[in-house]
Each structure stands twice: as structure tokens, then as C-alpha cells.
Amino acid sequence: MPAFSSMINGAEGQVLDLDSAVKDGVLGGGGGVGFGGGFSEKLDLKKMIEVLDSPEIPSVFICPISLSPMEDPVTLCTGQTYERSNILKWFSLGHFTCPTTMQELWDDSVTPNDTLHRLIHSWFSQKYFQKKKRSEDVQGLTSEILDTLKKTKGQARIQSLKELRRVVAAHGIARKTVVEKGGVSFLSSLLGPYTSHAIGSEVISILVHLNLDSSSKSNLTQPARISLMVDMLNEGSIETRINCTQLLKLLIVEDDFNSKVEIVSSPSLLVALMRLVRDKRHSSGNLPALSLLKSICSSSSSQSHKQIQLMIITIGAVPQLIELLPGLNSESLELALFILDSVSNLKEGNLALSDCSNTIPNMVRILMRVSENCTKYALSILWAVCKLSPQEYSLIAVDVGLAAKLLLVIQSGCNPSIKQQSADLLKLCSLNYTDSIFISKCKLTRTIQ
Description:
The protein contains 25 helices and five strands. It is mainly alpha-helical.
């Protein structure tokens, strides 16, 4: 049997070779590894490899060809070991060399490496049972906390909720256990008109991590519960406000959005979201708030859509978003532009955009500097504003360099529809000038030549 010189990480971080690992019991020995005297369960190696997917797999267990753990290791005459299926495929392609050393093989037979196979199985068995034990411990702990929650009140309940939140945030098995044990229904029952913010914030921080079914979502969209969430969105800590925003998005962004229009038509909800967008001390709330606002603006019903758009305009969101545009990252910028483009379809939205002195300059700055979607929304907003009063606004647009930007868009490799938008807007801007004056005014002579 060939010797192995590959190095692996053993217990407590020391580096061991394969022989030392076996001798010292780091990897276990032939029969298997367990807790306090071994285990009787014989598990399929392939299943364990799939379940564990561990980044800490010893390198000696990895096939040099596939870079995956070996299930059936075989050794060549050169002393190199590979997964059987991988080396046989190598041979079938007409290669009669060792893939690692590129030596020509004087013997093309492969020898099953039973010792390494047992070690691989032992290592994965040990890790598998450790993980299984941890999962069982987490499941037991989660069930215990849920039982305690049902029996406690006041400060003791808050402490139990905090503990459940920590477990749920850290372990997927805990999230699954809460759902399977009926925890969602119980947690939802804790939310109501008389719920303290201390209880409500903990409950919501747990619910936002869970996989909620339609029934649970419907239960959580009862007016009293939504009202509590909106209150906490206005008055809670930044973490609570973000959690409320994320949970509301999970609850209302559904196929039956139109049946929930009253929920999202709340001025206090929209005001709270805009406060979160504007909060310069806590920029982490910016993206979730804009994301929920975009979802609210994406209503499929034209009647509810208009109702929500008018409310967004009424609370003063348009000038606020316009002023925030320069400081937003690309993802948040695209969401903000989507919202502004959405309200620009209404006369009231158009007027609100045109009343902002920075609308046109900020839109011009955005062109060709960010994503294609941002450019599309900016062009649409510019078109809506300039068309409102071509003689006034197109002059402003030309003065801040719009025409040159539009030519760049037209000459770029972007979507044909965006090029057409740019061409239409360029034509609108030129209506106030003769061709020669327009070219001179915009300093486009060199570009055109």
C-alpha cells in the first residue's frame, strides 16, 4: 500500500500526516467514531457528504481531479489516489498518465484504498453525528423555550422571547421547529392593540426569520396587528423598524395585493417609511424601506395604484426623494427612481417633480452613470417634466448639459427603447432653437463632427 504524505489539520490545530492521524485517533479507526464508545448506525457516505458540505474536509480526502471528497478512493502505481469514477473517466479519454504528476503509467490498474475509505467514512460519520446531536439539542431548546413562553408573563416572557430570537437567528433547525410546533400562531397571538413595544419588537424579530404560510400571513394582516407594526415602525429602534419593514413586505406583497390595499394606504405607514429612508444616522434602513415603497407602488389595480401614488405625493415624498438621490447607492437609487417614475404618470406627481429645482439637474447627473434601468427611469421622468412646459423646462435641461448626455446615450450600446427615449427628448429640447444655435448652445459641434 502506497504511503501518504498529504497533510491534514488534526485536533487542536496541529498538523498531522495520515499515519499519525490514525495512530493518534484524530480521524478514528476502521470501525467508526462516536461518542463514548462508537456508534452502531452505518450511514451512507454519499449522503453524509451531501449533508455536511463542510469547508474543513482534510485535503487527503479530496480527489485531485474533481476537488470533491472521495467516496471510492483508488490508488495508481505512482502512489497518487483518486476517486474511482474520475480516474476511469480520465483513462477513457485516452490519457495514460497520472493527472497529478503527469508521469506515464507503467501499470494502468487501480488499487482500492480501503484504509483511506474507512478513514473518510469515520471522519464524516463523526462530523455527521456531531451535527445531528447539535440539531437535536437546538430542537429541544427551541421546544423548551416555546413551552416556557406559553406559561410566563411580563419580564420573564420578554427574556424568553429574546432567547428564542437568538436561537432562531442562528439556526435553521430552530426556525423549522418553531413552525412545526405551532409557534407562529402563538407568536402572532401576542401581537395586538395592547401589546407593549418591548414584546412586539421581539415577536416581530422572530417572525421575520420564519417561513410563513398563507394562513399565517392572513392572520398577521389583521388591522390591530398591522397598526401595532406601523406604530413600532414610527417609534421603535432602528432594528425594530427594519424588522417591521421586512415583515410588512412579506405580508402584503402577495397575489391578493388588492385585497390588502387598505393596509398599505395608510399615510402613517408611508410617512414612517420615508422617515426610515431619510434617516442619515442609520443608512441600513434605507434599502428595505425603499424596497417596500416600490412594492406598494407596484399594485396591479389601477384604482388602488392611483390612490397610493396620490398618498405618496401628498406626504411630500417626491421632493424628499429628489434631494436624496445623489447620496444613494446604485440599488437604492434604482428603487427611488422607480417610485418617482411611478408618480410622474399623474398630473399631481408631475407638478411635484417640476416644483423641485433639483429634479432636472439630478436626473441629468444620473444618465449613463449607473444601471440601464436607472437611465430609463431618469429619461422617463425628464420627459414628463419637460413635456409639462417645453419652453421653460427644456431650456433648463439644455443649460445643465442634458443634450450632450442624450447624445452619449444614443451612441451607446444600450437598449433600443432607451435610445428612442433619448432621441425623443433631444428633439423636445431642440424645439426652442434653430439647428445651428442648438448645436452652439450645447457645445456639440465636436461631438457631431
